Amino acid sequence: MEMLAIIPWVSGAISIITLLTLVKNMLSSGEKALAERVSKSEQEANARLAKVEQKAIEYDRRIQAIESDMKHLPDRDAVHQLQVTMERIGGRLDTMDERLKPIAATNHRLQEFLLEQAQK
């Protein structure tokens, strides 16, 4: 008789174990989907990170090229020195132009004289 008394308890325990297993499976199915979504998100994040790293490398190379080009350009003091020198040259050219005007006038008169002599 003891066996008949234990059977409802064993049956109840098996039902409880089955119910707990069913609940565990239901809850873990969401975990699997969540784990898949997290894995997919991590892969996408890694892909984006790789793209960002490639862009950073590209920008670094471009910056280095610009910096090397800028090293050859004159600095502020050199540009100022060039401006001063150009002003000086411009002044000398103006002076030379004033000095050449009388010579040009003389050459013009000489040409006119020679043309008059050639016509006679």
UniProtKB/TrEMBL annotation:
Against Pfam families, the record matches this protein to: DUF2730
In terms of superkingdom, the source organism counts as Bacteria
- Tell whether Hydrolase is among the UniProt keywords: yes
* Keywords noted in UniProt: Coiled coil, Hydrolase, Membrane, Protease, Transmembrane, Transmembrane helix
InterPro entries, sorted: Phage_Mu_Releasin (IPR020269)
* A GO BP annotation: proteolysis
UniProt GO molecular function = peptidase activity
Q: Which residues form a coiled coil?
A: 35-69
Q: Which residues cross the membrane?
A: 6-23
Its recorded name reads Clp protease
